[in-house]
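Structure in, sequence out. Go:
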């Protein structure tokens, strides 16, 4: 059976693979890197922010792990159903909004 993380990654991976989403992420990453390189003060602020986000993310995962472990056996089928519904909704969106299949600049 599919675990909670695998189910979430499934729909998330599909969204991230949409050209409009992936090209937006790439553009933002380039702008962020460029800003860090050209402004030393911004670089130090960005590094502090990045460390804070990593720390908060690790703390959140550590705190959620026991809860997920307890809920996983009961929720696996519900999560699989939700993932399936999300994927079908995404299919519908991709069909109705062709622009999702193009990079942002197009």
């Amino acid at each position: 059976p599919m675990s909670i993380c695998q189910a979430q990654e499934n729909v998330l991976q599909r969204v991230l693979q949409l050209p409009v989403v992936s090209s937006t992420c790439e553009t933002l990453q380039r702008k962020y890197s460029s800003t860090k390189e050209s402004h030393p003060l911004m670089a130090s602020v960005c590094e502090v922010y990045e460390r804070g986000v990593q720390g908060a993310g690790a703390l959140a995962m550590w705190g959620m792990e026991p809860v997920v472990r307890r809920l996983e056996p009961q929720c696996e089928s519900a999560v699989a159903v939700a993932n399936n519904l999300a994927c079908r909704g995404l299919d519908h969106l991709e069909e109705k909004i062709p622009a999702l299949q193009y990079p942002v600049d197009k």
